[in-house]
């Protein structure tokens, strides 16, 4: 099934098509304001500034941003739960957290104005991907601490389209709802879209039986080949959108109908690219780790947040007329975080679980594979000699115990495979904890 490119439409031409010099002026004005605010309201960040000897008055140009210290996920963990907030809690009207983690995850707050900004930046990428007020939007992201469900929900309402807040799971029901309610747009992770296409096939539902025409996919990496597969199997025009809870959630950037890079809402998010090892700026076209400064956030402004996402920036003009810089698809991460079915997983979380289980050695490996449409996580764990000689029943019980603990901690099912001592490859440098066997393109 071929899909038609929707017409170009722009939600907020004033900001999305701003002449470069006006945009730089606006960014600088906002940067100065946010740095001053951090200095005055967030002692944690002020201390970081003091350590490198920089004061708000040192920020006179956009290039001066390089004088400021980076912010990392670890900084936010140290501020858990509310020390990174720049406003008193009574001004915070919503709290979310990064997906897939429990305990000391990163907590993010929104003031009423932050929610309004968020809604607007989501509306921007929805319209840039072809959405109009006539559409009926099926949201299959989970609603909860994860920012996907609520983020998209309010953006769709702002555009004036109808939202069906289905949330994730119960896949056959998803297809029935799409068919019965006449959904015209689907919102979920790309891997879930591929899975839904398979479920559809299994139910004997053809793309022509649905009214779907648009698909908005994000929250994890996906390839051009996956795009073609989703487009042909579901009959949608598929666009990519990017964001992270620490910065705002979805809405940092999104593709337009030319499907060639995601336009960053630069009036709210100032992007830089760095070499993840040296932390020095790199050429935008060459690619590096994306670092983002929030220019307008009230509850948790972040300065030079290291996203760990590797991409390129594309400053050249786009035929859609937007002047904002585009970012390429994310090609990898500069840390060992994996995204499996939309859930963020760190090998250290697996380690935490194993520490609690007697008889497991410090050698383990996460193996991620794509089976059909779904990503599967297998955790291989070496057990100690005395345990391995035990009867099968005991070993099986141990596998189940680890699986249960992992599911509790990660919110994701993983298959645990106990392996003989000394079978997991040893490394001379950093242990290779992750074997990601998913197709790259
Ligand atoms: O995934 C926010 C989001 C929700 C974005 C819905 C788009 C749609 P987190 O759970 O904090 O937030 O995960 C953020 O997910 O640092 C990237 O590594 C990855 N990610 C998000 N969007 C994309 C994308 C949400 N389009 C982390 N392509 C980020 C590749 C993505 N990776």
Structure description:
There is one protein chain. By secondary structure, this protein is of the alpha/beta class. The protein has helices at residues 13-16, 20-41, 43-52, 73-78, 112-128, 147-159, 171-181, 190-203, 224-234, 347-355, 385-388, 392-410, and strands at 92-97, 107-111, 136-139, 162-164, 185-188, 214-218, 237-244, 249-255, 262-264, 269-274, 288-294, 305-311, 313-314, 326-327, 332-333, 338-340, 343-345, 360-371, 374-383, 415-419, 434-436. The strands form 5 sheets. A 9-stranded mixed beta sheet has the order 4-3-5-6-7-8-9-14-13. Strands 10-11-12-15 form a 4-stranded antiparallel beta sheet. Helix 9 links the parallel strand 6 (214-218) and strand 7. The longest helix is centred in the first third of the chain and has 22 residues, at 20-41. The model has no long low-confidence stretch (mean pLDDT 93). It binds 5'-O-[hydroxy(phenylacetyl)phosphoryl]adenosine. 5'-O-[hydroxy(phenylacetyl)phosphoryl]adenosine binds next to helix 6, strand 7, strand 8 and strand 12.
Mean pLDDT: 93
Which small-molecule species are bound to the chains here?
A: 5'-O-[hydroxy(phenylacetyl)phosphoryl]adenosine
Structural class: alpha/beta
CATH class of the largest domain: Alpha Beta
Shape, please?
globular
Radius of gyration: 23 Å
Q: How many helical stretches?
A: 12
Question: What is the number of domains?
Answer: 2
Largest sheet strand order: 4-3-5-6-7-8-9-14-13
Helical fraction: 25-40%
The percentage of residues in β strands lies in 15-25%
Tell me the major beta sheet. 9 strands, mixed
CATH topology call of the largest domain: Rossmann fold
Q: Say how many strands there are.
A: 21
Contiguous runs where pLDDT drops below 50 for at least 5 residues: none
Tell me the name of the CATH homologous superfamily of the largest domain.
ANL, N-terminal domain
Termini separation comes to: 21 Å
Looking at the overall shape, the CATH architecture of the largest domain is: 3-Layer(aba) Sandwich
């Amino acid at each position: 099934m071929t899909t038609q490119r929707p017409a170009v439409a722009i939600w907020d031409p004033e900001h999305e098509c701003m002449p470069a010099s006006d945009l730089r002026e606006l960014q600088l004005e906002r940067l100065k304001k946010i740095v001053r605010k951090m200095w005055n309201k967030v002692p944690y960040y002020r201390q970081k500034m003091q350590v490198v000897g920089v004061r708000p008055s040192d920020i006179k140009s956009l290039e001066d941003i390089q004088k400021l210290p980076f912010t990392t996920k670890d900084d936010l963990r140290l501020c858990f739960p509310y020390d990174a907030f720049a406003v008193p809690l009574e001004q915070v009207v919503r709290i979310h957290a990064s997906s897939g983690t429990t305990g000391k995850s990163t907590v993010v707050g929104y003031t009423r104005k932050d929610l309004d900004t968020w809604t607007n930046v989501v509306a921007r990428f929805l319209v840039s991907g072809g959405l109009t007020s006539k559409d009926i939007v099926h949201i299959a992201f989970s609603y909860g601490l994860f920012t996907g469900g609520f983020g998209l929900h309010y953006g769709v309402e702002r555009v004036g389209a109808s939202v069906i807040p289905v949330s994730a799971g119960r896949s056959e029901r998803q297809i029935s709802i799409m068919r019965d309610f006449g959904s015209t747009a689907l919102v979920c992770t790309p891997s879930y879209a591929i899975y839904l296409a398979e479920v559809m096939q299994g139910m004997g539902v053809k793309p022509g039986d649905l009214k779907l025409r648009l698909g908005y996919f994000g929250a994890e990496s996906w390839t051009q080949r996956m795009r073609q597969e989703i487009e042909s199997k579901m009959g949608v025009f598929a666009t990519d959108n990017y964001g992270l809870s620490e910065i705002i959630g979805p809405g940092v950037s999104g593709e337009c109908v030319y499907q060639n890079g995601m336009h960053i809402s630069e009036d709210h998010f100032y992007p830089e690219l760095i070499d993840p090892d040296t932390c020095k700026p790199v050429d935008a076209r060459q690619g590096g780790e994306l670092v983002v400064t929030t220019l307008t956030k009230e509850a948790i402004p972040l300065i030079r947040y290291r996203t760990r996402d590797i991409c390129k920036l594309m400053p050249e003009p786009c035929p859609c007329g937007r002047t904002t810089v585009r970012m390429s698809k994310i090609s990898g991460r500069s840390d060992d975080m994996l995204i499996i079915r939309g859930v963020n997983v760190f090998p250290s979380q697996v380690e935490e679980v194993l520490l609690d289980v007697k008889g497991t050695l410090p050698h383990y490996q996460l193996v991620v594979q794509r089976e059909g449409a779904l990503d599967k996580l297998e955790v291989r764990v070496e057990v100690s000699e005395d345990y391995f000689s035990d009867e099968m029943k005991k070993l099986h019980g141990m596998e189940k115990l680890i699986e249960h603990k992992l599911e509790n901690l990660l919110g994701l099912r993983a298959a645990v495979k106990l392996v003989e001592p000394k079978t997991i490859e040893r490394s001379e440098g950093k242990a290779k904890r992750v074997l990601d066997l998913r197709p790259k393109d």
